[in-house]
Here is the input.
Amino acid sequence: MVSGDSKNVQTFRKSLETDPNKSTGLAAIETLYDVLKNTRASTAGEFQDELGNAVKEMLTTDYSSTSIRSATNLFRKFISLAPVDITEKTDFSEILEFYRKRGVTFIERVSRSRSLISKYAKPFFRNNMNILTHSYSKVVLSALHEAHECGIEFHVWVTESQPDASGKRMHEALKSLGIETTLVLDSCVGYLMERMQMVVVGAEGVMETGGIINKIGTLNVSIIAKTLNVPVFVMAESIKFVDEYPLNQEDIPETFKYRSSVIAKNNLASEHPEVDYTPPQYLNLLITDLGILPPAAVGEELIKLYT
Amino acid sequence: MTEGRTEVEDLKRNFVLALRKNTKRPSSSTISMNVINFLRKIILVEKVKTIAELLASLHNHAKFLSAVEPTELIIINIVLMTSKLARDELNKKNGNGNIRAYDSLFTLCKPSEPTDMKDTDMKKIKKDLIESIRELTIEIDSCRESISAQSSDLIFNQDVVMVYQLETSKTLYSFLAKTREANRKYRVFNVIPESKNEELNDFTSSIRLHDVASKICETTKVFLTCIAVFPDGSCLVPAGGQSIALMAKRHSVPVYVLAPFYKITPFFIPDPNALNISQRTNMPFEFSAKSAGNVEILQPAFDLLDSQYIFQFVSNSSCIIPAHINRLKEDYYHPEDIALY
Here is the structure.
């Protein structure tokens, strides 16, 4: 734990470190719930400021700011969606009580997301399939695990996904689950693609376009898959939906592209972005905890929420 | 076994027999009507105490029938629609008429229990349900007419239209007939698969499937029929439809698919080959005796047509682009029902 961290950042880090399987988004939400539990705010404005500060603090860490932003935005939106008879109460503590209840249901539902995704994804796996995946994704891992548990045998090809070799972690994890897997070079995706029956990737964030922001290299994989008519499936929890509409790679917010510590150095010219944006035309379906959605449906979901 | 139980069994048996006794598959509107009538009888005959029981029994029948006839997705569609109607009746009765089933992201902050289904007056609900089922039959009945009514907005003078499987689709036939009534002067290429004999009629020029490539250059619009439409805008078309659509794409000819609402299937089929039956092939007996076990005759019945090849669906309400099918699904189905399949 880095010294000098505020209390919120400490809670956030601790939550992620004690349970390595926890998603960044869920940890961020739990941190906000912690703020909600301990708040002494007496007006809604004060309380929103407190939440806002907590989010700002979390964004200074090196965890995916796409996930933190989408999850916290949804949380703040939801807990404040109260019926009129509650918002009109003069005693703010009663309103806070309502918020807390909302928070608990929200966290409970979000923590079930991954198992729901595994359930929806299961029919897509078949015996003797060759599956290509890129980088390390907890959602993809749990879906593959569940399908394998059901007795479906398939071979997973994992790209190294440099610069941080997160694919290597994925490879190790799959191996320890007893799933047949091969670690391959990032540059051999084109060579391998003709043998694949499907590509599955996770996402750091799902954009309003229906496209995704994910570990750099996802775009390359998806374009090759599209060219060779291999279906690309994205597995992502709905707390990763972000109200952002990138038009091209340049248009991705800088905070999404670089870790906070890199931005702090103030010399982006010599840095390498961590993520890229894959437009919806390269994706077939998004498997989310809300069900299986075509990419075009994501925008509609977000519009329903943020208007 | 009680008296009521056998009656239900008989109903099921008769339904399956009626579906199978024809050598030619009846039209999809006939099948959907049969399903509705079957469900109506089931609802009347079965003694259920709560709405939850009613839904459970409907889904049981759906699963049974779809196991018997796995390729008829219409059966499940209609059952799901009926169960949505039952839920609507309950909501109406409990006074929360405008409850939104598809809260999608909003469901994240709601308690996760399934919809509350308290014991209510089943007699009243049953009566209302039968009434709304009757409305559904009227809607299905008028599908062909309302799709045909749009033909004069889609086909104009000097158009050259290519159609496929005209002889099996009454809807497509009446669609074309309607424009002729409007005195539109246009030409029709009727594509006939290799395995079928030519059927002559007075307003189409028949071409074979292998002539599509040369004739598509003259064509201005392609109209196809479909078996099922999926939420991502892809659809199952009669085998051969995909090659016509690919050819049309190459020459930028718009492809329209006629799709009445009961063909919208609310779930995805991950492996369309699983429900792709082979058409019955005629093989001389001598040949089949010699080749048994060595030769497999492949003649799949459907093609899965990706949404990128489809310009618009002509549904009974209006023309819709493939990306909007997902929205349309929300009008007819309840998410909790879909999750069961």
About this structure: Chain B has two domains: 2-141, 147-330.
